[in-house]
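idk why but the lab printer keeps eating my pages so im just putting this in chat instead. protein + nickel (II) ion:
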Amino acid sequence: MNPSPFDQHLFDRMVEIRRDLHRYPELAFEERRTAERVGAALDALGIPHRPVAGTGVVADLPGPAGVSVVALRADLDALPVTEETGLPFASVHDGVMHACGHDGHTAMLLGAAAYLQREETLPAPVRLIFQPAEETGTGAPALIEAGILDGVGLIFGGHLDRLYAAGQMVVTTGPVNASTDEFVIELSGPGGHAARPHESVDPIVAGSHLIAALQTLVSRTVDPTRAAVVSVGQFHAGTAPNVLARRARLDGTMRAQHPDVRRQLIEALHRTAEATAAAHGVSVTVRVVTGTPPVVNAPQPTALAHEAAVRAVGPEQLASLATQNMGGEDFGFYVERTAGCYVRIGARPAGESFPAHSSKFQFDERALAVGAAYFYHVALVAGRALAQRP
Ligand code: NI
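predcted complex ->
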């Protein structure tokens, strides 16, 4: 099942790097050691690099003048999770774990860097992006702010995925990750005696109606063929059984796979909260904290990614998306601005598999060879496409 290209020595090196990063995981914007290891690996390949947005690392491989850049992106950060895998290279940092496979993403992009470095010439310049702080959704915006997309024509990224076997890849057009927006709704009144509700208003009853009403946002305002979620995760109110609460606070999250559905949900949230509050005579404030945009794969870069994946693993190893993914991914910030494609790289471990972000998350390390081969091919395939652009 070895992908093409495959180099045993390089594979062993990727595994070594991955396990080292796994043992010393670092949280968002704290990836100092991780960035230092990435820098050392690039030094060993003779690839110049520079820091970006604090703990990020970027390396530019030169190509012909006047051709736009192909960007390849990996993420560096771990999660605040206490590891329970029992692996010999398990995290030594208490309460921090690479539970999403970003250690693998980093290692495979370094593998691709090694392959690309062996090419005498590249059809287009290639930018290797080692991005901090994906888990907090703040790394990509920081890098964009620092100009990481300047000159970039196409951008590619991917994620290890336990739903597919190592050797398989998923390359699809359209949405592959949902937007993640959070909201805080505060309902308030003057408070009063619970035995005399007519003398006051009741933020708890208003909040209860509002929670039920918010469940109709998806079912009654969104196209049923377009996935979306509204969940209230927190509802806090009141101080005593015989006192009408002065305040009720609802915190929740909204997910959508299409930018227009995302806008629709935000609008409907405001409308429903304000109308429900008005119906109950309570005051209301609605705050939406926008998170990551949906990741939507555009057709042209996806066709290039598809070609690269076929070259890496063969057409019979391309799987279709098993299930819609409502998780977030800050790669959405890049594809909002620059055409790109985000793929899944099969990595199902032997035995029982645990979801990403679980304390027992593991992946099949053979996926590192697949990711490196894919990134290598997509840099060349997309580079040739950019070189032909007028
Ligand atoms: Ni992840």
